[in-house]
Amino acid sequence: MGKFKILRISQLAYPKALxxxxxxxxxxxxxxxxxxxRLFFSEKLVYSDSFxxxxxQLGHEADEIVSDVDWIQKTWAKENSxxxxxxxxxxxxxxxxxSKIRPEILYFQHNPPLPYGVWKNLKHTCxxxxxxxxxxxxxxxxxxxxxxxxxxxxxxxxxSQYADHDIKAKLLYHYFDEAVPDLLDRPQIxxxxxxxxxxxxxxxxxxxxxxxxxxxxxxxTQAKMWxxxxxxxxxxxxxxxQVKKLLSSIIKGFVNFLPRTxxxxxxxxxxxxxxxxxxxxxxxxxxxLRPTGLKVPEKRLLDLFPQRCHSPVYGLDYYEIIANSLIxxxxxxxxxxxxxxxxxxxxxxxxxxxxxxDTGDNMSDLFEEDKEVVTYSSKEEALxxxxxxxxxxTKCREIASAGQxxxxxxxxxxxxxxxxxxxxxxxxxx
Length: 430
Hints:
The chain contains 19 helices and twelve strands. With 430 residues, the chain is an alpha/beta fold. It has three domains: 5-175 and 413-429, Rossmann fold, CATH 3.40.50; 182-233 and 297-410, Rossmann fold (3-Layer(aba) Sandwich), CATH 3.40.50.2000; 239-289, no CATH class. A six-stranded parallel β-sheet has the order 2-1-3-4-5-6, with helices on both faces. A six-stranded parallel β-sheet has the order 9-8-7-10-11-12, sandwiched between helices.
């Protein structure tokens, strides 16, 4: 079995999470790079360092970079005498890190945060790199991801979608960081029913089902929610980010008015910039999956239910609320269609909360319904199941315990990395 030097590159993606982290650790920006990174990962934000820990357990040399946390990245640049420009510091520092670390395997979590022409040529510009891997859980980037040596996606539907674009993808579900429960005090049930995450507000019609379902749950139960609901463009976004978001909205709006044949043709138009083509293709793939008969959300749930809806929490604070919840409610985005497997499923079960989630064709891949998790197929059934679980707490706790056992057995970082390792051994032979 070959052992490799692996570097995973991810992004935090939640600006508010960074603000909360900095308020908890005001001293962090004056610390050395390695101490900054250690402290940052200790909070278990989003992906954390679970991948590299698991890969090291398997005998590999593995490290992580979170490329959009400016003070960590700029501290590394300072310690390594790397100059960068204000407008493209992420790309310049990241490329310097890759060159310095000299990995054999470059693993991008979600999209490579580099221009396509740059990352597809990394094996030539950085000869130590033998293979480039990408893992993502949403459709899109059909014009570029064929350049990866191994593409891994979060549902069977995504495997089929990429196959339609002649891109071979492997199925790799999300997972739970098995180190988290030991970092928190023994849970005490404080909340009968909770939901934590994005309500779907500000995402247009593609997240409308979740928004309206959560609104119904709030209207008809005493659920408490901690919600990611932006007012608009992030106030911390720089002018370039604001322009990009505006252009993205304009392109999406334009595409939605075109006939389907025109949408597909435009997504393949060579005269358009690659990023625009990727955006159009992604929009094209998702239009047919969107719900009909639902209005685009216009009001934040935080404003409609201020007594029971709270600002979002992240990292260990997020996990602590889940651990103290009897029932954790879950609803996938409309892009998932008939498939399940979002991160919340594994986080809730891993922390020992009873997961109540929308069902999917692939549920049997992950959990046994009504024994390890509880599922629903409609708004009415969701409300019925909530009432049943609240009235039958002993049964609810039995399901929660079984779900936690299943996740800690089958859905951990180590389990997923064992699968990745098998694929790595195969492709490194090619």
